[in-house]
Amino acid sequence: MFNSDRLKTARERRMLTAKGLAERVGVSAVTLSKYENGHAPDEATAKRLAMALSYPLDFFFREAPERIDTDAVSFRSLARMKAKERRAAEAAGSLGIELYEWIDARFNLPSADLIDLSKERRRPFVAARLLRQHWGLGDRPIGNVLKLIESKGIRVLSLSEATKNVDAYSFWRGEHPYVFLNQEKTAERSIFDTAHELGHLVLHHHADSKTDKEAETQADRFASAFLMPESDVMDYAHLFTAGQIIAAKKRWKVSAMALAYRLNSLGYISEWNYRSLLIELGKRGYRSGEPDGIEREVSTVLAKVLAALWSKGMTKENIARDLGIPLEEIEALIFRLSPDQGASLEVRKPSLRVVK
Description:
The protein has 356 residues and is an alpha+beta fold. It has two domains: 1-64, Orthogonal Bundle (434 Repressor (Amino-terminal Domain)), CATH 1.10.260; 68-227 and 298-339, Orthogonal Bundle (Arc Repressor Mutant, subunit A). Helices cover 49% and strands 7% of the residues. The protein has helices at 4-13, 18-25, 29-35, 43-53, 83-104, 124-134, 145-151, 187-203, 215-227, 230-233, 242-248, 256-265, 271-283, 300-311, 316-323, 327-333, 339-344, and strands at residues 74-75, 107-108, 155-159, 168-173, 176-182, 353-354. A four-stranded mixed β-sheet has the order 1-4-5-3, sandwiched between helices. A two-stranded antiparallel ribbon has the order 2-6. A hairpin with a 2-residue loop joins strand 4 (168-173) and strand 5. The radius of gyration is 22 Å and the shape is elongated. The chain starts with a helix and ends with a strand. This is ImmA/IrrE family metallo-endopeptidase.
């Protein structure tokens, strides 16, 4: 049976209005609205819809997708984001859930190992320290943040939204935390986004973050403290020039602006010095990017999954066909990884093995 929610998901992924899609298919906007509200199109129209959206016809005849609860999603860059960009990113979340459920049915994946820190959301630096203690991280820099949170059961997927208005978002689905990261950002910014979304997952899952206007600021401060513990940053309190900041930022794999902010927030540099640093870093191109940036972190779990499937003769094309999702959407969700990347990655935790 034709599924109206799937039609809406595919249209949102293509950032089309109902009127725009109706014109492409040759039906009225009213008729298209009926299709999205439970009235099934005839076979010929269903084929035209699939062609107009570049989705397999099979996609529209499966069970309803998991629509993301907008109120339960923590979005970064919400102020700049257009409504169609948000809907497209959320629709990618629905596809990401389907992909991970497909993986979950075939592999033993790590369970979530997060603690409820909602009582500390007004003290995010304390929450960051508590989570580090819970995970036994000490105060040293984290070698690979994405790999770390995946080992703690967080399911991380990528977004290729071709817009800088969407940074990242996260949500809980039952017992499973999800994070989606836009690959349009610099590698350093993406690491900070990862920590920012981690903050939302532990600070705001059990709290009503929608009523807390400080939720984004809290997640930012959590990320800053989680990535750059004060006791470690303390040894670098002598950094006063842009050159020193740029040289030191690689220790924590953060942006130059993020390190300058951290030093200022800890009181190691004055407000005047901080403002001067921002101006100088901006002149050197560090406001809009990270010249001489680091290598981007990608999913270790998904790389290992691809490698394991490859060893059994399964490819990304097989996954796309099984799910009825365009291959390009699968590629966008899995960091555009290839099976050989998984074979080259060393993963001790989590222990990933095929169960079927």
